[in-house]
């Protein structure tokens, strides 16, 4: 199927092909990283209530995952206009939604900066952690650049970029500060249960058992030690997890890029059609 060139041809978009983000987000281990982000995000009681109280995520979980992946793909590889539209859509949704604290009765908006910041940091930490640990070549300086680049993405969802971590050290300090607020409450347990055994069509159950369970188990295993402690399951040996992540990364990266990128909605192929073949993401293109 041909990939058409969209309006705004020649527009490099929010991040541009010269960014670390452009190269990193083309890696297949992003799927494992995305599931790790869900596990981590669920540990913030106020944030996870926003999901469970405003959607039946069990019935539309796949749709939710696809929409998140589409947002990341659009903001990374789409035109500037497409990225801004995607951000406006997310801000509009958050502005309309509220959640209620069952213990205090407090009703709060999902566009609270503290909640948006938690979701953002859990995603960026997960993307960076899983890809580096699975063998994606990235120096510490390049990793810091990646974190800093995502202040632009944070702005799209309604955050003041000046309040968002711009380095690995600032990201680590943020997690240290927020840890007392984290807990594996009923909503986190619900998310955990779903991720371990998501619903599937009977014909797809074998694939779920083989593929999804491996992805979910690996994503969970890569969580920080405090997350394992909160969920109440033993933390696997870090060295074994690293070996599994590297083995999985090796297998997935052996699949030709052009095959992987044919999966809808083909953000990378559209970007290459817009900007030319030199826009192809690849680790070796990251400048020192």
TrEMBL record:
Keywords: Oxidoreductase. InterPro entries: MPAB/Lcp_cat_dom. Residues 22-254 form the ER-bound oxygenase mpaB/mpaB'/Rubber oxygenase catalytic domain. Pfam families: MPAB_Lcp_cat. Its EC number is 1.-.-.-. One of its GO terms (molecular function) is oxidoreductase activity. This is Oxygenase MpaB family protein. It comes from Streptomyces nogalater.
